[in-house]
Amino acid sequence: MLLRLTTVTCTLLFLSPPAAAYPADSEKGRRKVVHVMEDDTGAVIVQTAPGKVVTHRGGTITLPCRFHHEPEDVDPRRIRIKWTKVSDAFQFKDVFVALGHQQKVFGSYRGRVSLEQAGPGDASVIIHNITLQDYGRYECEVTNDMEDDTGFVNLDLEGVVFPYYPPSGRYKLNYRQAEEACREQDAILASHTQLHKAWLEGLDWCNAGWLEDGSVQYPISHPRDQCGRKDSPPGVRNYGYRHKDDECYDAFCFTSNLNGRVYFLKRFKKVNYLEAVKACQRDDAVIAKVGQLYAAWKLQLLDRCEAGWVEDGSIRYPIVNPRSRCGGPEPGVRNLGFPDKKFRLYGVYCFSRNPEHTDVKPTQAPQETSYNLTNSTRSI
């Protein structure tokens, strides 16, 4: 008899957030083991971490997996360990395989993945230099001759979800274009889990966007008639899985820790877009991407009450501590839209891998007033 661990995932919509549904921050990254009851048939038993392990982009993380075999006198050279990444659509991507002393790492994981080798029965792997694409669910499979068992580990990233639409306007992106739009802004399409967590933290956005599994959803913290009826409960609204080529929406992107710093370039005069790009280059930097600005706001607490160009041609500024002259009562990254790149003049946000670049707080609020700083309330 083969003993297996199975996982069932359920999506709940339009529900208020239950306080006990998520573990406290003190539990993040803590290593746990499932203790599986043994039978008398001599099966391979795999034990993995329930829940998830948490890290950030650029970090190092161990995906825990241990096994034992009854009887225990098994030649370790006959044990095969295989790690696979499993997508929400149940697509499998090889990560790592080992048979005795022979090991092979696949694709983008080459040079970054190795066995932990903490002793007999340890099938854990270490992933170095974590990327955004590493986020997700992993399967640990251990095989000995005809016996095998599997367990699952979820790798989560600390980061921020942000809604995105291109200069061409709202509801202009099919699924592939949404993927590319997030990638161009130093991000990936967010998962439902990431969007749900952002909603629990207060994200309220009245436009539907693609998620990485091909579904279209949007988070509402403050129900209103323009956003699906005022008498509806708060929650993550779900359009379900949509046609990836024919239907167009916005995107919900996810990004994580920066390997550098975003800063507002202090200048004596404001500049147009092309001048902004060149100004960052002269400062040994590049113009910041939207995802980089969101990461700096969320993870580095960048607070600057001054509007500036970012890479996609939009004008934005990050507010951690809301004040009356800086766009309203809520923290967030203010978006003033996509003005004329040639004739409109603003400051600029730059990104540099040089840690010596720092931000200096301004003394007055942005002067631009012609764009709405809050989310559109287009009815969907």
Q: What is the CATH fold-level name of the largest domain?
A: Immunoglobulin-like
User: Would you count the extended β strands for me?
Assistant: 23
Task: Provide a count of the helices.
Answer: 4
Show unreliable segments.
1-42, 359-380
Query: Which whole number gives the mean pLDDT?
Result: 83
Radius of gyration: 24 Å
CATH architecture of the largest domain: Sandwich
Q: Whole-Å distance between the termini?
A: 52 Å
Which shape, going by the Cα principal axes?
globular
Biased composition (Polar residues): 364-380
Family: Belongs to the HAPLN family.
InterPro entries: C-type_lectin-like/link_sf, CTDL_fold, Hyaluronan_bind_Proteoglycan, Ig-like_dom, Ig-like_dom_sf, Ig-like_fold, Ig_sub, Ig_sub2
GO cellular component, one term: extracellular space
